[in-house]
Amino acid sequence: MTVLLLVPPVLPLLAAGLHAVFGWRRGLAWLGVPAAAGLLGAGIALAVLVSSRPRTGLGGFLRADALSAYMLIVIGAVALLASLAAPSYLAAEKAAGHATDADLRRYGVLSQAFVAAMALAVLAASLGVLWVAVEATTILTAFLVGFRRTRNATEAAWKYVVICSAGIALAFLGVVLLHFAARHAHVPASGALDWAPLVQHARALDAGVTRIAVALLVLGFGTKAGLAPMHAWLPDAHSQAPAPVSALMSGVLLSVAFYAVLRVRVIADAALGAGFTRTLLLIVALASLAVAASLLLAQRDYKRLLAYSSIEHMGLLALGTAIGTPLALTAVLLHVLGHGLAKSVAFLASGFVHQAVGSSRIEDVRGLLARGPLVAGCLAAGLLALLGFPPFSLFASELGIVRAGFDAGLGWAVGIALALLAVVLAGIGARTSLMLLGTPSGRPGPGAATFPAAPIRPAVPAALALLLGLAACAALGVTAWPLHSLLHHATAVLEGRP
Amino acid sequence: MTGTFYVQSLDLACGALVLAAVLVLWRRDLRAIVRLFAAQGVALAALVAVLGVHAHDAGLVAVAAGVGVLRGLLLPLLLRRAMRAGGAGRETEPLVNVAASLVVAALLALLAYAVTRPVVALEPSPATHAAPVAVTVVLIGFFVLVTRRRALAQVVGFLLVDNGITALAFLTTSGVPLAVELGVSLDVLLAVLVLRVLTTRMHTAFGGTDLDDLRELRD
């Protein structure tokens, strides 16, 4: 069992080691693909194995239940898309003089280690190790955000590290306090931060201390998940990072941080009743949706537009978690995967647009559909998926959250959320329709020497990544039956049922 | 170690901890700030050592030595190097002046006493009675983080937060599990290394490390 649990973090680490030794050569650039595929495969195998009972490995250090297996599948799927698109994206960066061989080597090492850290985060048996892994993702992605070394990239990287480290420090304060409460509830010292004993002894936790701890944990991991009020780093970091890293950060890293909130909620609800986390998450959810909607309306930069859309979707996840019925929790889980796929497609496509146009300003991009039908079509489909249109799975999951909200008597909150979603729809629709349609004779951007002449044609594997992501997202929207049993078991974990 | 001596040395270490944090608010010379941070690291190590000797726990005393090396020597050394590379000097006019900062520190201490009441109530021992002091250090660290404009001063703010949390962990439960503690220390060390490199890059890109220059990305 230990071997299977070790595969998800160790495979990307091996790839990182090979990049460190051999650099980013022709063949090695594809190393991420088998690593991600192996991670995905291990996730699926674990999903089958742990449906009956959770498994532990490495002397209780690693632990997988249905929820961990599900998150591994999300990480594997998005990492697969990102690693399919990365070689051609980085080749273009190098050709344009934005990156040297040393930069590419660093990209290979850091991006693979980043995936390994996320895999470790969802497999960690203990809240403390989860914290360490999440903080490690911040450190590993800092130089990926600052990849281009421009003023903007350096500024984004600085804000990213400072705000996320400070936010996650709050979460660590929560970990310390929860540890204190757990030791008083007679949780054995060796596993006082492990999920299983914490959930078992949750009812014995001191309410006063646990309340402070949970508030700090939600706020701290919420920072890393891009939830308001500590979201300020997200649009900068996600818009400055190279597209495959943006896809990973937006598509899964946010969800991995949110996974911590989901785990904490199980303990909190058993210790304090459902009211406390519900209020906390409702405030955070509506604030995030409001922030995203207001800043999307006048957005001039299409990468930042996608970043704000991530804040919106994290707000929806928080809303669904606040509702907390089985239907809502299943919808939240499905939304994590759907958002991961659609957002990575949108970020990858926008990355190719950015490389071709040389500007990330919306007004510099016109008539994309005429210039690169494939990339523009995928970007459009990805945006439609993110806006919740059928047949994509985000339609189903958003519908589930809304229905569950009305059933749970939280109609007012769902009503506000729907109004804000309408604003988001109007904002994104108005901004991007001009980008996609428009006349190609629009004002060329500063770095757009070739505009509008050269068509945008991504390499075959990159195009495959875009189409694969969209196809998976649409297939899940039509029928989620391959995931049915896994979603069922993962929802049970989220409800605190063993 | 007798009861009174234990409580006195505990209080002395905690006093030094919070005093160093308050003095960081007072001083503007970056070199002095780094020295104060090193002194706080030593105070934290002493605090852990006192707890370890009191509990007759040799492992905890060893951890204290580790804490001292990391926070009293290694991290200040890194900061000093970054200072040299970044052409250090004085903090430019902070957003809040010194007198107001000290008043805020007093208010933050009151806040810390208010929020840690459940912690003290759960186990009223001499160590947990010192928990508000640790939380005060955390809050002062956050205050430094948001009001200082020099990159290095922000890093010190982040490290003050971390020192405060570590102190709280040892005061409440003689520390989080060792594996976690090691991971946290490694993360903090790496975060400071990353920030050091970014400071150098900022210096080349902006010609200074004044964070007021960081305003290109906004909506």
From TrEMBL, chain B:
<feature type="transmembrane region" description="Helical">
    <location>
        <begin position="33"/>
        <end position="53"/>
    </location>
</feature>
<feature type="transmembrane region" description="Helical">
    <location>
        <begin position="127"/>
        <end position="145"/>
    </location>
</feature>
<feature type="transmembrane region" description="Helical">
    <location>
        <begin position="6"/>
        <end position="26"/>
    </location>
</feature>
<dbReference type="GO" id="GO:0005886">
    <property type="term" value="C:plasma membrane"/>
</dbReference>
<protein>
    <recommendedName>
        <fullName>Hydrogenase</fullName>
    </recommendedName>
</protein>
<keyword id="KW-0812">Transmembrane</keyword>
<feature type="transmembrane region" description="Helical">
    <location>
        <begin position="59"/>
        <end position="79"/>
    </location>
</feature>
<feature type="transmembrane region" description="Helical">
    <location>
        <begin position="152"/>
        <end position="172"/>
    </location>
</feature>
<feature type="transmembrane region" description="Helical">
    <location>
        <begin position="178"/>
        <end position="198"/>
    </location>
</feature>
<keyword id="KW-1003">Cell membrane</keyword>
<feature type="transmembrane region" description="Helical">
    <location>
        <begin position="95"/>
        <end position="115"/>
    </location>
</feature>
<dbReference type="InterPro" id="IPR038730">
    <property type="entry name" value="HyfE-like"/>
</dbReference>
<keyword id="KW-0472">Membrane</keyword>
<keyword id="KW-1133">Transmembrane helix</keyword>
